[in-house]
Design brief:
Distance between the termini: 178 Å
Number of strands: 47
Number of helices: 10
Strand content: 25-35%
């Protein structure tokens, strides 16, 4: 039993152990989060009476919970959801307060639920709590109409099309220079603008690559430290600057309403930006790769070898799409939100392409689970499947649309059951015909290139028994063949021929040294080119209609570029921007040829980076072009008169110096004669009246 003496002894032993300071413990609270970044306010909800309060709460709670988990606090009844009720009015006030566990879910809720169709009379409006608090503090006052800014006329971006000589333009990047030239297809190119205004101001108007817009209205120059600058008008005035640090390349939408910039930075969540050209506003930004596109099991080296899936525009600028993992994300303009708030499911998709003329997406997917490989055509915005073609033993597919969207060619690389041997065939879709029939064209050889004739029904392929062969064959096909009409009993046989929708082999050119084919934009003429470091640079100008062939050469050429009209083309030897040693620098430059293979101009540079023709919009369709070609002789006199006037103008320009010298000589001679005539009397008086110019004073 413990006694008081024991307690006294224990207290004495502990003497000095305890502090004499008073005990005043201060609790350590977590830092107070004064922001409301996890909270959102949903407005424009239906106003319902108390009897329907619980039902509406459940519907709204179910909707917002799909985004992510709501906040939950221990010892509190608050579950992250609150919908106010006005007892005096006897109904809800039409809004709800939501708190998520993370700020990311709150941001996602704003993106997903904004303009969400809650019912036929209510579309939701979602905004951050901080923004709602700010609006609550705004004083109500009478609205005052702001004064409009004074009208400032923008430069005419189509002025170059009014050129009286119907010339084309092209831009080049060489050294530190950027220049735009006129080209008429006959004479040497003429300089139009080289940034002289910017040079005088000490400003570089381009430090990287350049890009024309699809209709030629805008000229974009890339300055990675500043972004993208748009130029236009007769004197290339500055129109707009878009902030895009580190920009690597830009892509315009087909109708020139939008522009996409890309800095190729894998660590930047805003690597890709979509701008409105009219307002200059950034509509949305995307990371370089879609979510879950890269397998987490891959190493960093393996991930770096996978190229990011590119965005693609629809022909009318209505949609912007990008491939993801087993899906295609399709965004509507100008909101840049997902079409119908969901992606298009495409199991195993490897590639997709928009039709050049319709809102149709073509994509292919390999064998997946128990499904064969297949090519699908999907209509937008209905997502209706227009056609599906199943394929077997597929290694790879390549999709190639004809320029007018009338045909789709699919180059299919197949394998045998042992997977040791590969072979090719072509699947040809007739998109405009009912049911979209598909024809299969078997090709025994390996197909190295496939290209449609612009605005035509013909196509060409490069093929050889061995893909590494130096000698290849080029075969031309037509989607139609001419057929003799059937003779019906009792009727005379028609003299005309009929077009039958059936793939028809036109001809084969054997033993060619080419690895690329380039149709003229006007059709009919095709270039068979051997491009690349190890190729010969041979250029074969072949007229498919007349069967005429002209062979030229541009050693080390790595590009063939047709002008929009098909009158001329350029072949270039260029190097990438970005430093380093380019081993073929001695060959840098370009050559301009006529479509018949005549060399028009050649220029060489120590460093040559880019050559790009200025595009122009095609105003005539296939039928109108055929009509003009049919009646070309009607315009022959007009063209000849214009050519003669142009030649006369050139002759006058060339002889201007000679004519000026001749006029000056004649004027000097007349002045000297006048001076001599005025001195005649003085001269005679000095000679005692003798006139040396009087012929009667001479005896012959």
């Amino acid at each position: 039993k413990t006694t008081m003496a024991d307690l006294a002894d224990e207290a004495a032993s502990l003497d000095g152990y305890f502090s004499d300071a008073p005990l005043e413990p201060e609790p350590k609270y977590p830092p107070l989060n004064e922001s409301f970044d996890r909270c959102v306010v949903i407005t424009n909800l239906p106003k319902v009476p108390e009897a329907k309060y619980e039902k509406l709460s459940k519907v709204v709670l179910k909707l917002v919970s799909r985004i992510g988990p709501l906040a939950n606090y221990e010892g509190s009844d608050f579950s992250g959801f609150f919908m106010p009720f006005d007892k005096e009015a006897g109904s809800t006030v039409g809004c709800a307060f939501i708190e998520y566990e993370t700020a990311g879910d709150a941001k996602k809720a704003i993106e997903v639920l904004e303009e969400y169709k809650f019912d036929k009379n209510h579309s939701l409006h979602v905004l951050p709590q901080d923004r709602a608090s700010h609006l609550a503090d705004v004083e109500e006052e009478e609205f005052k109409q702001p004064e409009p800014e004074p009208f400032k006329e923008r430069p005419n971006t189509m002025s170059w099309l009014e050129d009286s000589c119907q010339r084309d333009q092209f831009a080049i990047r060489q050294g530190k220079e950027t220049a735009v030239y006129w080209n008429d297809g006959r004479e040497e190119p003429v300089l139009d603008y080289d940034g002289a205004r910017e040079k005088e101001a000490g400003v570089a108007w381009c430090e990287y690559y350049v890009q024309w817009s699809p209709k030629g209205s805008y000229f974009a120059t890339l300055v990675p430290n500043r972004g993208v600058i748009l130029w236009g008008g007769e004197k290339f005035q500055k129109l707009q600057r878009f902030a895009a640090p580190g920009v690597d390349f830009v892509v315009f939408s087909p109708q020139e309403n939008y522009m996409m910039t890309n800095n190729n930075n894998r660590n930047d969540p805003h690597a890709i930006k979509i701008f409105s050209i009219q307002t200059g506003k950034c509509l949305r930004a995307f990371p370089l790769y879609p979510k879950d596109f890269l397998d987490e099991k891959l190493s960093e080296q393996e991930k770096s070898n996978i190229p990011p899936p590119p965005f693609q525009w629809s022909h009318d600028d209505k949609y912007l799409a990008r491939m993801g993992k087993d899906l295609i994300s399709i965004f509507e303009t100008p909101t840049m939100k997902l079409l119908d708030k969901r992606s298009l499911a495409c199991d195993g998709i490897c590639e997709f392409q928009f039709s050049p003329k319709d809102n149709i997406i073509a994509y292919w997917a390999p064998e997946h689970k128990n499904q064969p490989a297949h090519v699908d055509l999907i209509e937008l915005p209905s997502r209706k499947s227009l056609r599906q073609k199943n394929l077997f033993n597929v290694t790879k597919c390549s999709l190639v649309w004809q320029e007018n969207g009338e045909y789709l060619g699919v180059k299919v690389t197949r394998h045998t059951k042992s997977k040791k041997t590969l072979y090719n065939n072509l699947e040809l879709f007739r998109v405009n015909e009912p049911g979209i029939p598909v024809e299969m064209l078997d090709v025994k050889d390996a197909v190295m290139a496939f290209s449609w004739e612009p605005q035509g029904s013909r196509f060409a392929i490069i093929h050889a028994e061995n893909p590494t062969s130096t000698k290849v064959n080029v075969t031309f096909y037509d989607m139609f063949r001419m057929s003799e009409p059937e003779k019906k009993k009792g009727k005379k046989k028609s003299s005309g021929k009929e077009l039958v929708a059936e793939v028809n082999k036109v001809e084969t050119l054997e033993g060619k040294q080419c690895n690329c084919i380039f149709w003229s934009p006007a059709g009919r003429t095709i270039i068979l080119a051997a491009l690349g470091d190890s190729a010969s640079g041979t250029l074969e100008f072949y007229d498919v209609d007349n069967k005429s062939l002209v062979i030229k050469e541009h050693y080390r050429a790595n590009q063939v570029l047709w002008d929009p009209s098909g009158r001329t083309l350029a072949t270039t030897v260029s190097q990438p921007i970005g430093g380093g040693h380019f081993k073929f620098a001695m060959d840098n430059g370009f050559i301009i040829w006529s479509f018949q293979g005549k060399q028009i101009s050649q220029q060489s540079f120590e460093t040559f980076y880019q050559f790009q023709w200025r595009p122009r919009e095609k105003l005539f369709n296939k039928e109108e072009i055929a009509e003009v070609s049919k009646n070309l002789k009607k315009y022959e006199k007009q063209f000849n008169a214009f050519d003669e006037a142009k030649k006369r103008k050139l002759r006058l320009e060339e002889t201007r110096g000679k004519r000026k010298s001749r006029s000056e000589f004649r004027a000097t001679l007349a002045r000297l004669k006048e001076i001599r005539a005025n001195m005649k009397q003085e001269r005679m008086s000095l000679l005692d009246g003798y006139d040396s110019e009087d012929e009667s004073n001479f005896t012959t």
